[in-house]
Amino acid sequence: MTSKPISRNSAATFLWIFLASTLLIAFSFFDVLFLGASLRPSDVGSSHIAPTLTRSTLGPQRDQRQLYHGYNDIGTSVWGLEPGQLFLQKTFESADLPYWNPFSSAGEIGVESLTDSKFSIFSILTALLGGSSQTYNFVYLGLLLFNLYFLFLVFLNYFNLSILSACAGVLVFLLAGFHTSNITNILVLPYTFFPFLLHSTLRLQEKGSVGRFLCCVLAHIFVLSPMFPPSTIFTFIFVYGCGVLVHWRQSSQSFFSALYSFWRVGASGLVALFILSPIIVPTVLSWFYLETFAHYSSRQAGSANLAAIISILSPKHFLGIL
């Protein structure tokens, strides 16, 4: 398997990718970093009554429209993700078990375990660092910076893009409609980690080693731990599909040989499932016990329209969540 000649492990490569990623995040989230705006769901949801510095944007809102109107189902995070993080913070302080919260349905195992994502690396880090709005923004943008590094490496080493094209691809990832409209929502957590998983997958296919295998296990854990099946399943379909196709295109193997050589990645996923089994098993069992799937499958959603489809590639955050 061949790749573009770039020293992926050199300090210079790390430095320029870090600087490029930082500048792109600063460009995309200028209002959060410099104008006091917040990505935290409760801040966005109360932006129409909050002080100016907590609801700053780079563009004015239209008449009869509030900032939170640009986000998708923000209530699931206001009443699920945030309480789950605060519950987890109290759990760490009291050294109690995190499976059940008697004071909030957002902490219980069952239907709400599809929305609180308290076992994700995002929730764990936010809880450990205090759970404030500043912590929420710092952790989320920090995780974005972490994943942009691997997205750059994927574009440069496996898709053979130029530096300018790689920057454009990263910007699309940051400003894509799905990301910006769900940035306060747990839907986007598995999507946020797809660059780390994709890079780990491609590296493991390129050459098997213990270190690369463990890195791929960690990437699977990051994607699985939010425990939100729809986003997780689609993330795996996309990453595994890209992994097989890139390996097939850049090697002399047949497609089926490339697919068979994917076994190492599959094995790393199984190891991740085993490590997370103390979380996954009781949670999934509770879904069946409380008929979670029947509850969610009975919900109805409106069909997509042309404006919604076009918005997938619209820079909503930069334009003030228009």
The helix content is 55-70%
Tally of distinct domains = 1
First-to-last CA distance? 44 Å
The tally of helices reads: 17
Tell me the number of strands. 0
- Low-pLDDT stretches are 1-5, 315-322
- Biggest sheet overview: none
The radius of gyration is 20 Å
| Class derived from helix and strand content | mainly alpha
> Which series of helices and strands comes N to C?
HHHHHHHHHHHHHHHHH
Shape field: globular
On the 0 to 100 scale, the average pLDDT is 79
State which percent range the strand residues make up. Answer: under 5%
Protein traits:
mainly alpha; 17 helices; disordered N terminus
Structure description:
The chain has 17 helices and no strands. The chain is an all-alpha fold and 322 residues long. It has helices at 11-28, 30-34, 41-45, 75-94, 121-128, 133-157, 163-175, 177-181, 189-192, 194-206, 210-224, 229-249, 255-260, 263-275, 277-289, 292-297, 306-310. The longest helix is centred in the middle third of the chain and has 25 residues, at 133-157. Helices cover 61% and strands 0% of the residues.
